[in-house]
């Protein structure tokens, strides 16, 4: 038995990850409703503009809605076992509160899943990925309103029933813990001056927890052989020094992640929240049945995104700062950074995977990991993205180490396997893919697809089940 056999299991799922609002385009086609993503100028996390027009790159994305067959053929050429996609809630229920779904939207995903299955690519489907009906924000106030639980449950049951023979892997909310950092994107929240903003975020999070648990319940009932997981934004926070105050601050930041996975994977609110709520004067409304719902319908696996780590300090003001996936922090002097000032920390992936598995003893699924960079087309038409290969190779190697540590890993989907609109900056310039898409930040371009050097590299990684990146000797 070679080292690869000892590391990545034979049924390990290799693939890529995408989001409907970042690549589909066709934002009002076939009776799709307006989503929260459709009113962000430049597709960014900035100010909301309900009249956002051509300046919103999300509106066309990379035209995956019309080009998915050619893109899936390229994913199949790389040997994908799975593709993570999301269903645009607004394609199924344009306003979110209708009694009956939009048949054109349901048919699109039927076609998409059929195309994936034609190549033996398993769909991994997220129910809500930074996109929800704008009507639910304007009419109900987003997830602060308990009524959204029933709307989401109805939506989940419709898609489970429709795709029960096609989709066996599901996720409820993408990066659910991001509601504290980007409340509009993750929760449809518009917070006003004078409100207890933290209390509203926690209340919205509670409603999402209940909705997620009810989706787990429905999934298990409708598709007994399916698996449904949670999905969180995972960032290890290291104490900047061994000063106990830095260590305690890092623990507090770490709990910002664990709070969400504790509720979804363990089924109850952790005791440390009592002190946080008391000190911040937060009072959450819960129904009597909520405790039972959360306890009885925990997720089957824990999915998470991982891009970078941060350091935390009791005195951050005199230290260099870095950006990150929604959340930034103090620069770690031992790490390099990307062009967008995200710290590159492959070992952090091994560390956070161990922390999560030790805590929950449930399978883990790394459903986002990738490098956003500026790619240049050479005179001969090639795109030599060795920097992306180096980044991904180092991270996949650490996945092997995590498995050797005893962590149960289901799979790995890189973000995003084809260039798409960046959620953090609203750009096309910030590219992640193995496949280049000819579109720029102004929306110009032919949308031609071009394989990068990393395309063949990832194809070899998958074909070797990770052996390509596992050192032969240590």
From TrEMBL:
GO terms for molecular function: beta-glucosidase activity. GO terms for cellular component: cytosol. One of its GO terms (biological process) is carbohydrate catabolic process. The keyword Repressor does not apply. It holds the Pfam family Glyco_hydro_1. Gene3D superfamilies: Glycosidases. InterPro entries: GH, GH_1_N_CS, Glyco_hydro_1, Glyco_hydro_1_AS. The active site is at residue 368. Keywords: Glycosidase, Hydrolase. Belongs to the glycosyl hydrolase 1 family. This is Beta-glucosidase/6-phospho-beta-glucosidase/beta-galactosidase.
């Amino acid at each position: 038995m070679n080292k690869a056999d000892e590391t990545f299991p034979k049924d390990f799922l290799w693939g890529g990850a995408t989001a409907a609002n970042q690549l589909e385009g066709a934002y009002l086609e076939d009776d799709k409703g307006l989503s929260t993503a459709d009113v962000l100028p430049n597709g960014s996390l900035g100010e909301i503009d309900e009249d956002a027009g051509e300046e919103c790159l999300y509106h066309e994305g990379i035209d995956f809605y019309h080009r998915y067959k050619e893109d899936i053929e390229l994913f199949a050429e790389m040997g994908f076992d799975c593709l993570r996609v999301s269903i645009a809630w607004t394609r199924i229920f344009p306003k979110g509160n209708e009694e009956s779904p939009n048949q054109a939207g349901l048919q699109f995903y039927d076609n998409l899943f059929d195309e994936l299955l034609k190549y033996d690519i398993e769909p991994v489907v997220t129910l809500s990925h930074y996109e929800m009906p704008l009507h639910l924000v304007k009419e109900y106030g987003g997830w602060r309103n308990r009524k959204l639980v029933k709307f989401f449950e109805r939506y989940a049951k419709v898609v489970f029933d429709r795709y029960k023979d096609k989709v066996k892997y599901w996720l409820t909310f993408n990066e659910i813990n991001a509601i504290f950092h980007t409340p509009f994107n993750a929760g449809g929240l518009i917070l006003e001056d004078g409100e207890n903003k933290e209390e509203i975020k926690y209340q919205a999070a509670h409603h999402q927890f209940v909705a997620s648990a009810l989706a787990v319940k429905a999934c298990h009932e409708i598709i007994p052989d399916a698996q449904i997981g949670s999905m969180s934004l995972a960032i290890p926070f290291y104490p900047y020094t061994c000063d106990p105050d830095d260590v305690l601050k890092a623990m507090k930041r770490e709990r910002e992640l664990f709070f969400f996975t504790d509720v979804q994977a363990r089924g109850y609110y952790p005791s440390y929240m009592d002190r946080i709520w008391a000190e911040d004067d937060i009072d959450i409304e819960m129904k009597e049945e909520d405790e039972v719902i959360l306890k009885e319908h925990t997720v089957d696996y824990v999915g998470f995104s991982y891009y970078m780590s941060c350091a935390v300090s009791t005195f951050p003001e005199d230290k260099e700062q870095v950006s990150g996936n929604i959340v930034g922090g103090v620069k770690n002097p031992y790490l390099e950074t990307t062009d967008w000032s995200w710290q590159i920390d492959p070992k952090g992936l091994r560390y956070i995977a161990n922390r999560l598995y030790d805590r929950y003893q449930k399978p883990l699924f790394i459903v986002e990991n990738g490098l956003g960079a500026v790619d240049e087309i050479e005179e001969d038409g090639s795109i030599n993205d060795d920097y992306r290969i180096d980044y991904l190779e180092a991270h996949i190697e650490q996945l092997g180490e995590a498995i050797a540590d005893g962590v149960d890993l289901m799979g790995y989907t890189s973000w995003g396997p084809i260039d798409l609109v960046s959620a953090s900056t609203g750009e096309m310039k910030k590219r992640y893919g193995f496949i280049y898409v000819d579109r720029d930040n102004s929306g110009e371009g032919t949308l031609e697809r071009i394989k990068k050097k990393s395309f063949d590299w990832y194809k070899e990684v998958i074909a070797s089940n990770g052996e390509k990146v596992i050192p032969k000797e240590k």
